[in-house]
């Protein structure tokens, strides 16, 4: 691989790491369509290669989130435990289906997640008087048992799509359990670390991970993740959710274009 390609991967990794740190998504949602579109990879190879970058980036992001607000380790560990086995199951499913079908499934999944974020942002933008009239129910506590069940669901999706566990977990944690956006992002990323490790091993074992591309992406990403996390804590929650939804819609557009 030429020095130009390595330099381009380092620069792209830096941009992806920054955006992933801001949005709490590990950057994989950006990297996968970019690898398919710019480097002509199959969906499976793009997902495996993105995981090389995603895993260390997630670890760095979790460390930075934890420095800002302490993560509930019992909840995070329970969610991670639930995700491990189901991530392997999801990865095996993904490796056994057609690449174009997997890509379209990925686009549909992200589209509905983005719609949910648009709805959530719109709901919170209503006038305060109208929100006050709406009946209020006490939010359930996000216990380790509930985190374990959520981890199973997120693990399956994370293995199947290479990424996506945290993308699903964040809106569930914010809407059902009503935790702040940044707290939800920190917990969601913590829960997917062991599962992402299993997914990376599974994709690599199947020959669906390009380490020559993934390694420089990871190095570039790690440099800029801390900057993105700092910015995430300075942005208003509504603006952060809107940015998240916009990023998902952009990813869907890329995937449709690739199809």
TrEMBL record:
It is a multi-pass membrane protein. Its main location: membrane. It is found in: Cell membrane; Membrane. InterPro entries: TM_pro_TauE-like (IPR002781), TSUP/Inactive_protease-like (IPR051598). GO terms for cellular component: plasma membrane. The chain crosses the membrane at residues 75-95, 149-174, 186-206, 213-233, 239-257. Keywords: Cell membrane, Membrane, Transmembrane, Transmembrane helix. Pfam families: TauE. Belongs to the 4-toluene sulfonate uptake permease (TSUP) (TC 2.A.102) family. This is Probable membrane transporter protein.
């Amino acid at each position: 691989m030429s020095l130009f390609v390595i330099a381009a991967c380092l620069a792209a990794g830096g941009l992806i790491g920054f955006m992933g740190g801001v949005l709490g998504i590990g950057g994989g949602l950006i990297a996968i369509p970019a690898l398919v579109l710019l480097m002509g990879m199959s969906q499976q190879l793009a997902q495996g290669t993105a995981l090389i970058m995603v895993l260390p980036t997630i670890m760095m992001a979790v460390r930075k989130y934890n420095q800002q607000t302490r993560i509930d380790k019992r909840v995070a560990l329970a969610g991670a435990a639930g995700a491990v086995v189901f991530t392997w199951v999801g990865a095996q499913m993904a490796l056994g289906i057609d690449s174009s079908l997997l890509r379209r499934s990925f686009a549909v999944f992200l589209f509905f997640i983005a719609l949910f974020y648009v709805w959530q942002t719109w709901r919170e933008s209503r006038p305060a008087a109208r929100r006050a009239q709406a009946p209020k129910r006490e939010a359930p506590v996000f216990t380790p048992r509930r985190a374990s069940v959520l981890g199973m669901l997120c693990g399956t999706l994370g293995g199947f799509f290479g990424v996506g566990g945290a993308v699903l977990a964040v809106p569930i944690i914010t809407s059902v359990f009503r935790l702040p956006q940044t707290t939800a992002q920190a917990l969601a990323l913590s829960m997917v670390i062991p599962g992402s490790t299993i997914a990376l091993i599974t994709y690599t074992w199947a020959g669906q991970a390009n380490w020559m591309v993934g390694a420089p992406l990871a190095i570039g990403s790690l440099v800029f993740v801390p900057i993105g996390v700092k910015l995430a804590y300075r942005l208003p929650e509504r603006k952060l959710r809107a940015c998240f939804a916009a990023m998902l819609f952009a990813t869907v557009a890329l995937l449709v274009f690739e199809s």
